[in-house]
UniProtKB/TrEMBL annotation:
Belongs to the ABC transporter superfamily. ABCG family. Eye pigment precursor importer (TC 3.A.1.204) subfamily. GO terms for cellular component: membrane. Residues 333-343, 378-392 have a biased composition (Basic and acidic residues). This is ABC transporter domain-containing protein.
Length: 1061
């Protein structure tokens, strides 16, 4: 609506049609004043006719505070239930000649609203300085001059009213300065006033008769205005007024608010005494809290039972996997027997064919063949077959042990379930291939099955790299320099070197995770120049930090990764076998059902946590496994156990490389290859572990007795150990390695000498100290900024790379959403104590605000609702931070592994809908029943749900974009700042962007709709003052919901784009 509507004259013009309709109907109802029924019928008929005519004007002028014109007329001026005061006034004289015309009504409302609380109007034709008759006094009115017709619809000219002045009729009010009467609305109490001889005031209207005029008695009511100006005509609280002249005490079991026309029944009869102004419903709030607590306890117990049943189901799945393993082993025995028969038959067939062919060729050849050639194939077969059988016996020895026919030598007990898993897993893929050929039982098919030993295995990936150099894009600092080598499948390579040598950087570059750097050189995958990112579904990367969900068990962590990253065509039983094999190989069987634990809550040990961190990548059956310091913080026994598990993975063709610090001699000898780097990211050695001492011995570097070789080499590269003068200079070791292997050596490395002041490592840093000193601060800042931007771009490109050469089809977004949903639900159930604290704080806030900020009829409870918006926003926003703040690093790992970001985000949001539904109930169960506003609890609940949904989206954005401390600070400040701004700058564009403005407007409108009748002026005045529109209730809720959706989209965008530095 236009800004001009906020002016004082706008409400007056808006109220004009409302009051005028009644006057016209009353004035033109020419019926027998003794017949109440006739008066009522004529009045209603005329009112309905005029209502239809004035409805468009009313909607145009009063649209911001009136929704339904007919309903408002009925609530304000429908006296059909008790028109007695109209009939009584008609008996006194000519009523149409005494009521105000349109011009007088307009003049009154404009004057009263412009002058505020002053109880008089401006001078006019009948009441001015030169003419002030009795009818100009408050509570009095006059009749129009004789012989003059009064046109009630005339909005321009005042009629002359100067005769037959008398007190205003009961049920009407006569303003001071006007000589006409206006009927009081429903909800008002306008009796004839009486003179209080003690105070000299006409009660109950607080005006005084004019002095020196003993014949001028107290008249009727003097004005109807908003409740903040005067509440003289409002039906007092504790009473109800069915008509403007009737006031009735509120009965027991009922309550009556100010301005009531009927009494409202209390929910509990005993809670309302006679003349109660409101009902005490705090007991119902307590009952609602108890009921809600019971429901939550039932949900919690049911969910706990559900988790227990789920665990039992998983245990049955493991038992089924055991049976499958046994059946597979037995099937393997049958297939091996069939292979033996088929091989013998094939050998005999080959002998017969050879014999026949030899006879046809020549007799002499036949004889020679008969003497030496005929027995030769069987002999050859017998010579080859034992080795084949011995291999099968070695492979099949667990089979006989599983079946129980044989026992281990020296053993006295049967094999355990874990050994069954260990063997069965290795055979299950082979048996599937054999079962697919079971339908082809011809001679050639059986022979093919008997001689085909190549069964489907993991894809083997060989990674060769040449002249790999990594340079920061902005600062041009070199992290790696001219690194060449090869990582072979089935081998375990260790990357060692002093701190700052670029060990993790090298493995990150090989895995395609080196972001923010310019990479030069060549990386070949199986001899082809293909992007390593295209194989990320079968590449496992174990970070240095133990990124494991602490509120899940060991098995739940592994099982979730297995379901999300193993091929979708893999059966449930096969996935169970994979997880069981990993648990057994990592020695996690005793703690499989134990919580991993967090900083606050103790769980498994640090070594076990480290092994779980490795197991998360092992369960997805990678072809390449890269580990960043997996043995750091482990004791020698745990390190040995971990490395044995990795060796078993390498036996299946997995390409394994890992960064290791100070391995023991036993661990050192378990590696196949060693990559040794010097400071500056330059290679010193890359080859088999068995030849490293031989190579360095040729350079004059001999490991002393009883000294661990890797420790000695690292001490040399670190400069701790000084070499003899006969040995090569430490600074020349990278150059010597390149020359030894025939690699191309950079020109600056060739020009450098052992005795020069500049070191290779310093040159590998990318700039000399002099150049660094000359570099400007501004240039350094710009370089760092470019590094960060380049890193963000590379991270986005890596995670969004669509090319896939891994030939592995993992579960889609919908199935991953299902898995994420189950995991997130478990986590929230195990955080039920935190949720309980949130609910408790919300309930206490509701009690405090409901008690301190009682509903004010003048502002429709705006103050209490303002505090509600701030409190609920703050508490729910901080609660929403936990959804993402504490799990950013887990998300980054899972996203880098190829899991769906959308499924992760939607599962979190779906689980948080529980809080969106429950938290408003918790708060309103206290606030509503202590505050007791006029709006219904359902209306307040709908608005509060929209508010919680909105602020939860804002909390997501803060949690993802800011660090935890900054996010909490923003969550505490934003609701307060936005509320203050939207209240002070109501008409600004920015205020319309504040969600607090729409939340407060929705609450106030829901409450204001319950104020009608005598409250009409108060409602319209308050709404126009606050800048609200009564038709915007649905709009407010939609805007809040839209804000929630928009902020969720922003949060998801930030989650995908912004990652750790």
């Amino acid at each position: 609506r236009p800004v001009a509507m906020a002016a004082a004259g706008a409400p007056a013009r808006a109220l004009l049609p409302t009051v005028l309709l009644l006057f016209l109907a009353v004035a033109e109802a020419q019926v027998d004043p003794m017949s109440n029924g006739a008066v009522t019928s004529a009045l209603n008929a005329k009112l309905k006719k005029l209502t239809d005519a004035f409805a468009p004007q009313v909607k145009r002028e009063l649209g911001y505070c009136i929704q339904d014109t007919d309903a408002e007329w009925d609530a304000t001026f429908n006296f059909s239930s008790d028109p007695k005061f109209l009939v009584d006034c008609m008996k006194k004289g000519d009523l149409p000649q005494r009521v105000c015309t349109a011009a007088e009504l307009k003049f009154y409302f404009e004057s009263i609203l412009r002058r505020g609380k002053k109880n008089y109007v401006r001078p006019n034709k009948n009441c001015n300085l030169s003419s002030w008759i009795d009818g100009c006094e408050p509570g009095w009115g006059c009749t129009a001059d004789a012989g003059k017709e009064v046109d009630l619809q005339d909005a321009e000219n005042f009629p002359s009213r100067t005769v037959d002045c008398q007190g205003c009729c009961p049920g009407f009010f006569c303003p001071r300065g006007l000589t006409c009467m206006i009927p009081c609305p429903l909800g008002a109490y306008c009796p004839q006033s009486t003179l209080n001889k003690t105070t000299g005031v006409c009660d109950p209207y607080n005006y005084q008769p004019p002095p020196g005029q003993p014949n001028h008695t107290c008249g009727g009511a003097d004005r109807w205005s908003d409740v903040m100006s005067t509440d003289d005509v409002f039906c007092p609280a504790g009473y109800y007024c069915p008509s403007p002249i009737l006031k009735i005490d509120c009965s027991s079991g009922f309550y009556c608010r100010k301005g009531s026309t009927i009494q409202t029944k209390c929910l509990s009869k005993g809670s309302c005494k006679p003349n109660s102004t409101t009902q005490d419903i705090t007991i119902f709030g307590a009952m609602l809290v108890v009921a809600l607590s019971l429901v939550l306890l039932i949900i919690y117990n049911f969910s706990d039972q559900l988790l227990t049943n789920r665990e039992k189901k998983q245990a049955k799945s493991r038992e089924a996997a055991v049976r499958l393993a046994k059946e597979t082993v037995q099937a393997r025995e049958r297939w091996r027997s069939a292979k033996d028969v088929a091989k013998k038959h094939a050998a005999g067939l080959q002998t017969s064919l050879t014999r026949t062919f030899s006879r046809k060729k020549s007799l002499s050849s036949h004889e020679s063949s008969k003497g030496g050639g005929v027995p030769h194939p069987p002999e050859q077969h017998r010579a080859d077959h034992p080795s084949e059988e011995s291999g099968e016996k070695n492979t099949g020895s667990p089979t006989a042990e599983v079946g129980g026919d044989k026992k281990k030598k020296g053993g006295k007990h049967a094999h355990t379930q874990s050994q069954i898993f260990q063997y069965a897993y290795g055979q299950i893929e082979k048996e599937k291939a054999l079962e697919q050929n079971s339908n082809n039982l011809s001679l050639s098919g059986v022979v093919a099955m008997a001689t085909d030993e190549d069964l489907r295995q993991r894809p083997r990936i060989e990674i060769a790299f040449k002249d790999i150099t990594l340079t920061l894009k902005g600062s041009k600092k070199k992290l790696l320099r001219s690194v060449s080598g090869k990582l072979m499948p089935g081998r375990v390579a260790a990357v060692m070197g002093p701190s700052g040598a670029g060990k993790t950087t090298l493995l990150s570059a090989i895995a395609g995770k080196a972001t923010g750097c310019a990479t030069t050189g060549t990386i070949l995958i199986n001899g082809k120049q293909e992007p390593i990112r295209a194989y990320k579904k079968i590449i496992g990367f174990v970070p240095q930090d133990d990124i494991v969900h602490g509120n899940l068990t060991v098995q739940e962590n592994l099982w979730f990764n297995a379901r999300c990253r193993l091929p979708v065509e893999m059966s449930q039983a096969e996935k169970v076998l994979v997880v069981e094999r990993v648990i057994e190989s990592l020695g996690l069987q005793p703690v499989r059902d134990s919580m991993v634990g967090t900083v606050e809550k103790r769980g498994i040990s640090g070594g076990q946590r480290k092994r779980v961190n490795v197991g998360l990548e092992m369960v997805m059956e990678p072809s390449v496994l890269i580990l960043d310091e997996p043995t750091s913080g482990l004791d020698s026994a745990s390190s040995l156990l971990l490395l044995r598990a990795l060796r078993r993975e390498a036996m299946e063709g997995v390409n394994i490389s890992m960064v290791v610090h100070q391995p023991s001699y036993t661990l050192y000898n378990m590696f196949d290859d060693l990559i040794l780097l010097a400071k500056g990211g330059m290679p010193v050695y890359h080859g088999p572990v068995k030849k490293v001492e031989e190579y360095f011995k040729g350079l004059g570097i001999v490991v002393p007795d009883r000294v661990n070789p890797p420790d000695y080499y690292i001490d040399i590269l670190e400069g701790i150990v000084k070499l003899d003068t006969n040995a090569v200079n430490v600074k020349d070791l990278p150059l010597r390695w390149m020359l030894h292997n025939g690699y191309e050596v950079p020109r600056d490395m060739l020009q450098s000498s052992s005795g020069s002041e500049s070191s290779l490592s310093g040159e590998a840093g990318g700039h000399a100290p002099q150049a660094e000193a000359k570099k400007s601060v501004l240039g350094e800042l710009w370089g760092n900024l470019r590094d960060i931007l380049g890193q963000k771009k590379d991270e986005y490109d890596y995670n969004k790379s669509s090319e896939d050469l891994s030939n592995r089809r993992t579960p889609g977004k919908l199935r991953q959403y299902k898995y994420y949903l189950g995991r997130c639900g478990k986590q929230r159930l195990r955080e039920s104590s935190i949720q309980g604290v949130d609910f408790l704080i919300l309930g206490l806030a509701g009690i405090c605000l409901g008690t301190l900020a009682k509903v004010s009829d003048e502002s429709f409870g705006a103050l209490g609702y303002t505090y509600t918006v701030i409190a609920v926003s703050l508490l729910c926003m901080i609660g929403a931070l936990r959804s993402f703040s504490l799990e950013k690093i887990h998300y980054w790992r899972e996203r880098a592994a190829g899991m769906s970001s959308l499924a992760y985000f939607m599962s979190k949001d779906t689980i948080d809908h529980f809080n969106t539904i429950v938290k408003p109930i918790v708060y309103l169960s206290m606030f509503y029943f202590f505050n007791n506003p006029r709006s219904s609890i359902w209306e307040n609940y709908v608005v509060l749900v929209a508010v919680v949904y909105c602020v939860t989206g804002i909390g997501y954005t803060f949690a993802i974009f800011f660090q935890p401390g900054s996010a909490q600070l923003w969550s505490a400040l934003l609701p307060v700042v936005l509320t203050l701004f939207s209240n002070e700058q109501k008409d600004s564009v920015f205020a319309n962007l504040c969600y607090t403005k729409w939340a407060l407007e929705a609450f106030v409108i829901a409450n204001a709709q319950r104020y009608s009748g005598v409250w009409l002026i108060t409602r319209c005045g308050s709404l126009v003052k606050m800048g609200y529109d009564i038709d915007h209730k649905i709009t407010c809720i939609l805007v809040l919901a839209a804000n929630g959706i928009v902020f969720r989209c922003i949060a998801f965008f930030c989650m995908v784009i912004f990652q750790k530095h």
